[in-house]
Amino acid sequence: MSVRSKIWGPLGVVLVAAAGIAGVYATRTPPPSPLFEPPAMSLSTTDSVPFDLLTHCGIDETKIGGVYFEAEVPLIGIARSAPPGWGNPRQAGRMTLLTPSRAVFRDDLGHEVFFRARQGATEPKVFCD
User: Fold this and answer.
1) Distance CA 44, CA 12 (A)
2) Domain-by-domain residue ranges, the chain?
3) Cβ 83 vs Cβ 76: under 8 Å
4) Of the candidates 125, 117, 123, which has an alpha carbon nearest to the alpha carbon of residue 98?
5) How many H helices and E strands in the chain?
6) What element of type H or E holds 11?
7) Is the distance from CB of 41 to CB of 98 less than 8 angstroms?
8) What angle do CA 80, 85, 90 make, to 5 degrees?
């Protein structure tokens, strides 16, 4: 066996394996973010339902019943993270639709965030990883 085959044989196997793994990751579709796949929720007002609010990248928006809502006062921690005192990546609580275009999230810790519908929005403002 030549020196070239001793070196390139194992290296070639590693390169082919790495290329195969990279191909799998390049073609893999990422799972939907919980921010944009909340529990099923009707748009009837005054209903309060359990809701896990995504906080990982701060509290700036959410999706309720197919409608994008943005926080009236965004709460964003250092380096676009969860605000201090909030769970990360989610905070469990209840979402209540006050009107078809206004909602409020409340939890057992006393947190409260009001949201307004983003009229005509078809996608999130920012994708959170």
Assistant:
1) 61
2) 1-30, 34-117
3) yes
4) 117
5) 1, 6
6) helix 3-27
7) no
8) 65
Say whether 105 sits in a helix, a strand or coil. strand
Integer Cα distance of 39 and 105 in angstroms: 14
Reported as a single tens digit per residue, the pLDDT across 86-111 is 999 999 999 999 999 999 999 999 99
The gap from C-alpha 118 to its chain's centroid, in whole angstroms, comes to: 17
Structure tokens at 108: 């057992």
Torsion of the alpha carbons at 39, 45, 49 and 54, rounded to the nearest 10: 50
> Cβ neighbours of residue 20 under 8 Å, at least 6 residues apart?
none
End-to-end Cα distance, the chain: 49
Q: Is the backbone of residue 23 left (phi > 0), alpha (psi -120 to 50) or beta?
A: alpha
The pTM for the full model equals 0.66
Residue type, 129: D
Residue given tokens 């965030």 in the structure block = 113
